[in-house]
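Students often ask why inverse folding is considered easier than folding. One informal answer: many sequences map to the same fold, so there is more than one right answer. In these notes we will look at a single instance of the problem. The structure comes first.
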C-alpha cells in the first residue's frame, strides 16, 4: 500500500526488510489495544462486481467495490465515515503519498479517501484481479486511518533510529496485509497465491521502495487474517520483532 510509506519515502530513505534489533511498541494504546481487535468476523458480503473493458465500466467497478467494502467494514469501525473515491485525470501519474510517477494504474489511500488512476492496463484487462487487489489494499489504509492507527503510527517515537523506523513501518504494512486478507474472506474470494496478490497491490515502479517485510511474514499475517475473516488477529503492534521482520 502506497500510504504506509509516505513519511519514510519523503525523507528519501531506502527501506530494507529485516533487522537484528527488537523495538517493542510501548505507550501507544491506539496501536496495541485498539478497539478494532475486539471485533469479530466481518459479515459475509455478496457484491455484484462486473468489470468490463472500458473506462466507464472500470470506473463503475472501482466505485462499486469501495461501496461494497464500506458495507463490509462499517460495523467494525467506530464512527465510520463514508469513503469517497477520487479519479485523477489521465495525465496525472504522480501518486499522492510517494510523489513518484507510475506509468499504469494505481489505487491508494490518500488522506481519508481512495485515489485512483485508471490506465489501459486495468481498463483493458478482462480479469479483475489486479484492480481488486489494489483497491482492497488501499481500503486497508482507510481502516487504519479511521481507527486512529495511522495517526498513532506517525506519532511513534523512534529516536531517529532507522532500524526502529523500518520496524514500525513493517508493523503497519503487515497489519494491512492481514486486514486485506480479512476483506478477501468476507467477500468470498479464494486465494491460491498470496504472492500474486502482493504483486498486484502497488505499481511495479515502487517494488524497490517497499518495506512490508519478509515474504514468509507477509504470508503468515495474510493467512491469519483470511482464516479469521476479521481484524481480531491483525495486531502486529504486540508481535515480537521476529514476526514483523
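Output (designed amino acids):
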Amino acid at each position: 500500500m502506497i500510504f504506509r510509506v509516505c513519511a519514510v519515502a519523503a525523507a528519501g530513505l531506502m527501506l530494507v526488510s529485516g533487522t537484528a534489533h527488537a523495538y517493542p511498541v510501548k505507550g501507544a494504546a491506539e496501536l496495541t489495544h485498539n478497539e478494532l481487535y475486539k471485533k469479530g468476523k466481518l459479515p459475509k458480503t455478496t457484491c455484484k462486481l462486473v468489470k468490463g473493458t472500458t473506462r466507464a465500466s472500470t470506473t463503475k467497478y472501482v466505485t462499486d467495490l469501495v461501496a461494497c467494502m464500506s458495507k463490509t467494514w462499517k460495523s467494525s469501525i467506530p464512527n465510520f465515515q463514508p469513503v469517497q473515491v477520487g479519479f485523477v485525470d489521465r495525465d496525472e501519474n504522480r501518486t499522492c503519498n510517494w510523489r513518484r510517477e507510475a506509468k499504469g494504474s494505481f489505487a491508494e489511500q490518500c488522506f481519508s479517501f481512495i485515489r485512483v488512476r485508471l490506465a489501459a492496463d486495468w481498463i483493458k484487462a478482462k480479469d479483475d484481479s489486479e484492480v481488486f487487489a489494489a483497491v482492497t489494499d488501499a481500503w486497508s489504509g482507510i481502516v487504519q486511518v479511521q481507527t486512529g492507527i495511522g495517526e498513532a503510527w506517525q506519532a511513534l517515537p523512534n529516536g531517529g533510529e532507522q532500524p526502529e523506523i523500518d520496524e514500525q513501518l513493517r508493523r503497519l504494512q503487515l497489519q494491512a496485509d492481514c486486514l486485506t486478507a480479512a476483506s478477501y474472506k468476507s467477500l468470498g474470494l479464494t486465494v491460491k497465491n498470496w504472492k500474486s496478490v502482493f504483486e498486484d497491490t502497488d505499481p511495479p515502479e515502487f517494488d524497490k521502495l517497499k518495506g512490508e517485510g519478509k515474504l514468509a511474514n507477509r504470508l503468515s499475517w495474510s493467512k491469519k487474517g483470511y482464516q479469521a475473516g476479521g481484524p481480531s488477529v491483525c495486531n502486529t503492534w504486540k508481535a515480537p520483532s521476529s514476526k514483523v521482520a
